[in-house]
Amino acid sequence: MNKEITQSPSTGDRSKTERIPSIVLRDKSRWFGISAEIKRRGYNFLKAQNIADGIRLFPATESDFRGIEFFRNEQIPFHTFQLPSEKGLNVVIMGIPSEIPESEVLGQLRELGFNPDSIARMRKNRNGAPMPLILVKLSTPQMRLLRRRTPVRRVP
Length: 156
Prior knowledge:
This protein is of the alpha+beta class. It has five helices and seven strands. It folds into two domains: 23-83; 88-146, RRM (RNA recognition motif) domain (Alpha-Beta Plaits, 2-Layer Sandwich).
């Protein structure tokens, strides 16, 4: 009566695969010509789905997704979303007094090994008064630095 119990991996154990966004072609009447051009250029799409807005394409790989540049060059109407690997990270640093200039915060971030794309003090909508918040935009390769868990010095 020895039964071996196997556990399926929990959701935290599974490696997350990045989903490649779909591409929606707006003009259904041009589908046959566009599909022939897609095949001629060697792009692979998992499937094409007829929807109310047009025809939705599901690219197989990121390089197939990047092949949509020819849609722009040929002025083919379409829409899509940004690849997850190309998205940056927006970080809000709280508790920075408004008397401390952004350049000083930028210097501290560079000392910690970050090279932000941009840095800006957040302001109130009503009167434009500075808030104790700083918005920092990081590119994707710099996000791995956050996992180092570098202690951030507290500003007195």
